[in-house]
Specification:
Endonuclease I-creI, mainly beta, 3 helices, 307 residues, 38% strand, Jelly Rolls, nine-stranded mixed beta sheet
Length: 307
């Protein structure tokens, strides 16, 4: 069965909670199609750093002070200890996007290290072509579109959690590998799983240096959801056409890298039936560590096992 999550006010939220009422309940094997505003609740692109723009209304200043997420969607029978397999079947961004750099998007130390002031805000506006293959900014520079949801995840066990923070159950991962044709695996931590999606990106580089990608609304994010009771994991995994990916999050990149690498070693031991010492030796030749993003409250690193 196919379920559609329309971008209406009652289908949106900004906090993660195991107490949220699901906007719909689906069965394992069902497909869910999300349509989302941009991460800032925007329904149109910004014209400047100061001009008002049309956003989702009404919004509660406290409850909705966070990223715009659509959902949550409950999977019937999902319980802590299960794994949700999320097949990303199709992602289509809106025809516009934006990127900011400067004030409030990363820490002052990060901006200073990049040589930009933390007291100003710079806007770059983008337009996508009809085929959604190229994005062109207002200076005439082009970037190939590689659309994905920056936020895709399940609810943590807590009853009120900051949605900006990436977690073991996914969320604000900002992993540019989560494009159509990949499969994401997340551990279920709350009853029903409670899947939320948002933060559309038309394109992003590893690291997300400014704190924003090409932020955009999403016309369609089509996901096939399968409940897996035969698989137990403790952090996100991604199956891509090129190989496996594991992700780690921590306050610093060194620890995030260690988490991602350790999760990859677990996967290699399972998939390749080898000892951990052998997995470490093989990983030194075949596993790549990449910075997922370095601007969220927790930094992200993903380990890539190429086939």
């Amino acid at each position: 069965m196919i379920h559609f999550i329309d971008p209406i006010r009652e289908n949106m939220h900004a906090r993660l909670s195991a107490s949220l009422t699901p906007v719909c309940i689906v069965d394992s094997g069902d497909t869910v199609v999300f349509q989302t505003p941009d991460v800032s609740w925007g329904l149109e692109p910004p014209a400047s750093t100061t001009a008002p723009r049309r956003k989702v209304e009404p919004r509660d200043p406290a409850r909705d002070n966070g990223p715009c997420l659509c959902g949550p969607v409950a999977i019937r029978g999902a319980r802590p200890g299960d794994t949700l397999e999320i097949g990303i079947e199709h992602v289509r961004p809106a025809a516009w996007g934006w990127t900011y750099s400067g004030r409030g998007l990363a820490t002052p130390a990060h901006n200073t290290a990049l040589g930009i002031g933390d007291d100003t805000l710079t806007l770059m506006r983008w337009t996508l072509d009809d085929e959604c293959t190229l994005a062109t900014n207002h200076h005439g520079h082009t970037v190939r579109v590689r659309a994905f949801p920056g936020m895709i995840g399940l609810s943590p066990a807590e009853y009120d959690a900051d949605a900006w923070i990436p977690r073991a159950c996914g969320g604000n991962m900002d992993c540019r590998e989560l494009v159509a044709g990949t499969t994401l695996y997340l551990p279920v931590l709350a009853e029903g799983g409670l899947l939320s999606v948002g933060d559309g990106h038309a394109a992003q580089g590893d690291g997300e240096l400014s704190g924003t990608a090409i932020e955009c609304a999403m016309e369609e994010v089509r996901l096939r959801l399968t409940l897996r009771r035969d698989l137990r994991i403790t952090s996100p995994r991604v199956r891509t056409p090129e190989g496996w990916i594991t992700l780690g999050f921590a306050p610093d990149l060194d620890t995030a890298a260690a988490h991602a690498a350790s999760a990859m070693l677990d996967l290699m031991m399972e998939e390749l039936h080898m000892s951990r010492a052998d997995a470490v030796a093989l990983a030194s030749a075949r596993v790549h560590l990449r910075i997922t993003q370095m601007v969220n409250p927790l930094r992200g690193v993903h380990a890539v096992l190429m086939e």
